[in-house]
Amino acid sequence: GCDTVNNYKRSQPHWERSIMRCFDSASPEQCHNGVEWYPQAIATVNSYAGINSVWTRETSAAVCAVLSPRITWAENTKALSRFHKCACEGLQLIPSVAGLRQNVERAWYIAHSGDVSVVSGPKVSSFYANLMGDFSRVTVDSWMARAAGLPESSMSLLEGRRYAHLQESYQKCAVKVGYTPAQFQAIIWVTIRGKHV
Known about the structure:
The protein is mainly α. It has nine helices and no strands.
């Protein structure tokens, strides 16, 4: 309701201060790695595109994005490669890969059909947009929530309006320091993960 929206608006300055503290702690190397993260990820995703008429850039990005929740990037790219190989060989059984069952099933459907309209949810949709080269969106995961000062347990609440307000906070911070929102998010992601490895 309206109260919830007002609470998020009141929380935003606190989130933004926490995000900027994380950004200020980033090393030059972390900033560089953050800026390079999406171009490298896009190159990886695109390397599987165009093998057949179904597996386009969009298919590749959608499969990757839908598989992404709760798995590492290394697991994600390994699963993408496996799905690509099995789909190109015409296999019908879902290969065994890391990921939430529902997401694995949806990604396998996309791999076979090329139907990217089933990409849904704020985080997955944002990640898909980023992998398609839209750097105005922000992929907010548990690391991004943590950098904003939110407890990790709040990730289940990162739907709808709260996600939109948190994304807006990242977009505002990015503008302040002259990065695209996706570049800025990747810098924060690299930095916050570096603190907890």
